[in-house]
Amino acid sequence: MSTLAYEIVDVFTDRPFAGNPLAVVFGAEQLATGQMRSLAAEFNLSETVFLLPPSTTGATYRARIFTPEGEIPFAGHPSVGAAVTAMRRGLFAAGEVIQECGAGLLPITVTAAGGATLTGATPRLGEPLDPAPLLAAAGLTAADYAGDDLAAPRSAGCGLDWVLLPVRREALARTRIDVAAAERAGVTDLSVFAWADREAHARVFVAGGAVPEDPATGSAALALGVWLVAAGRLPGDGVSSYRIHQGVEMKRPSRLECTVTAVGGAATSATVAGQVWPVASGRIAVPPFIG
Q1: Segment holding 135, helix H or strand E
Q2: 3-state secondary structure of 52
Q3: Which residues, listed in sequence order, are joined to residue 25 by a DSSP beta bridge?
Q4: Which 3 state secondary structure label does DSSP give 282?
Q5: What pLDDT digit, counting tens, does each position of 60-82 carry?
Q6: What residues contact residue 290 under an 8 Å CB cut-off, 6+ apart?
Q7: Is 0.90 surpassed by the pTM of this model?
Q8: Which 3 state secondary structure label does DSSP give 46?
């Protein structure tokens, strides 16, 4: 039986067995999309990433990223985890690399110490949203809401969009996704966060997903930077840093170090950085091809 090499790593944490676990699969050039989807479902982590040769000039490598349900164009912890793991396996040296993925060509700075800084794609920002149905989707009430006219819930993203809902810090422990309410609100990907002193405490959910809560979400961290500038929580010009604590309620504490660059009151780019810890490696059988 044919097999492929893989590693399991923990991303956005200062120690193993915390942060967000990720499966990194190598040598998958001949796999069909359905086979990749089957492998991602077998690992059953929030994401599995397949490292491939680049298909375009200027890229160091290509990443295809899958949840247990299917392929997505971009995600933060697979991008950071894949870059560091590939460097450790000798695919390239530490330094500046370019990842090709569904969101385009993304710069990543990889360190020999096992960390990486990812620059997201072009920021996007949606219109303000009514907080009431989002609070209901999160199992919360109006008393838990921490927004205002400027800091209203919105969708935002730098390659993958999330709906961002500001709440009081004490509400995070009580947050429980109501899948039916989320469906009525028309939201699947929801980041619920509390903000103070350039730090956020966050919980990130995929309503109805195979992995309904994420312990560390790089794409949502980038999205938060876009939201913070639009909400006036960070300066509208220059480069600002912020930190996100996530996964605490899941007992997988994570820390994401971020920056956002703004011009004229709007975010123009954002970065997210963290460490990557190897925890397992092996070989996995290649699933049968189903045409």
Answers
A1: helix 131-137
A2: strand
A3: 6, 50
A4: strand
A5: 999 999 999 999 999 999 999 99
A6: 34
A7: yes
A8: coil
- Domain 124-271 carries which CATH code? 3.10.310.10
Distances (CA, A) of 234 to 156, 237, 238, 241, 261: 15, 9, 10, 9, 10
At 183, the pLDDT band (50, 70, 90 cuts) reads: very high
| pLDDT tens digits along 244-288 | 999 999 999 999 999 999 999 999 999 999 999 999 999 999 999
Count CA within 13 A, CB hemisphere, residue 11.
35
Q: How far apart are CA 11 and CA 115, in angstroms?
A: 9
Compute the distance between CA of residue 198 and CA of residue 194 in angstroms, rounded to an integer: 11
Name the amino acid, one letter, at 79.
S
> 3-class DSSP state for residue 157?
strand
Domain at 3-120+276-285, CATH class: alpha beta
Place of tokens 């044919």: 2
- Facing residues of 63 across strands? 51
Q: Token pair for residue 106?
A: 């993304």
Catalytic residue at 100? no
DSSP state of 144: G
Candidates 269, 247, 268; CA nearest to 256 is 247
- Number of residues in the chain: 291
Mean pLDDT of the chain: 97
Domain ranges of the chain: 3-120+276-285, 124-271
12-55 per-position pLDDT tens digit:
999 999 999 999 999 999 999 999 999 999 999 999 999 999 99
CA distance 131 to 146: 10
In angstroms, rounded to a whole number, what is the distance separating the alpha carbons of residues 204 and 221?
10
CA 43 to chain CA mean position, Å:
18
CB 163 within 8 A of CB 137: no
Q: Which of 7, 29, 47, 170 is catalytic?
A: 47
Fold match between 3-120+276-285 and 124-271?
A: yes
